[in-house]
Amino acid sequence: MRSRGSWKIRILIGLAIVAFAFVQRCSNKEENPYTGRVQNINMTAEQEIAIGLQSAPQMAQQHGGLYPDERLQAFVDAVGKKLVNSSIARETPYQYDFHLLADDKTINAFALPGGQCFITYALFKKLNEAQLAGVLGHEIGHVIGRHSAERIAETNFWRTVSMGASVGADAGDIVGSIGQNTLLKNGRDDELESDELGVLFMIRAGYDPYEMIEVMKILKAAAGPNRVPEFQSTHPDPENRIQKIKAAIEKYKGR
Question: Per the database record, which ranges form the Peptidase M48 domain (predicted)?
């Protein structure tokens, strides 16, 4: 049986850990020079690049490796480089590589921190060039938005807070659930930010931004009638994304 004094010590230690987490979080705040958004980031661009390069082979392996047709890979590279070279992406320190994955069953595209962008053949084969540009522009947006780095920092923050709560009152699971909800909300915001950036990159590269709306329709059709409700998903519903994309097109067209 613990004494009252030992419980006080545990609570004080727990409060100190939680306080440290919040102080560290505030000190990590910085403005993203490419989006203007203030973020909680605890790593450098060089570290992001290293994480992406280290993780890329494993991510490719999980999707059956790279698609074997070099001609199609060259096409993906050309569209990706066109988007980078005509946008603010070329001013960033990131190393952009575009990978066509062999997976012909999973409709997906994603980006690792630092510039490693992926699209599965299952999604690629459904797209025309402008729609491919929309998908790749969206993934470039994730890189420029530093969404992975922000997610890592948020995860570390909530892990530290959870540890402090566990020490003080054995309530780590509750705090952990708060962290998960926070990450879920931020994930949706990240998708919308990347959609807007993708529209801007399409316009700058000379692509029809309305093709991004067609991408959303493709994703909605692929998900089928039993798709996960928006509030249970890290991605906004395609219908909501379409409305935001239309607003982004009005915002950036003619610029």
Answer: 73-247
Residue 1 lies in a domain: no
Sequence-separated (6 or more) residues with CB below 8 Å from residue 160:
17, 18, 20, 21, 24
Helices (H), ranges, 86-210: 121-124, 129-144, 147-169, 172-205
Number of domains the chain is built from: 1
Structural domain boundaries enclosing 53: 8-252
Amino acid at the residue 135: V
Q: Name the pTM for this structure.
A: 0.77
Question: Which H or E run contains 21?
Answer: helix 4-27
Give domain status of residue 41, yes or no.
yes
Is residue 74 one of the residues assigned to a domain? Answer: yes
Q: What angle do CA 142, 189, 27 make, to 5 degrees?
A: 80
Dmax over Cα atoms in the chain, in whole Å? Answer: 72
- Which own/partner contact pairs does 149-153 have at CB distance under 8 Å and 24+ positions apart? 149/39, 149/41, 149/42, 149/43, 149/48, 149/113, 150/39, 150/40, 150/41, 150/186, 150/190, 151/183, 151/186, 151/187, 152/42, 152/43, 152/113, 153/25, 153/28, 153/39, 153/40, 153/41, 153/42, 153/43
Residue 122: its pLDDT value, please? Answer: 95
Residues ≥6 apart with Cβ < 8 Å to 54: none
Q: Report the pLDDT value the prediction gives residue 159, as an integer from 0 to 100.
A: 52
pLDDT > 70: percent of the chain: 71
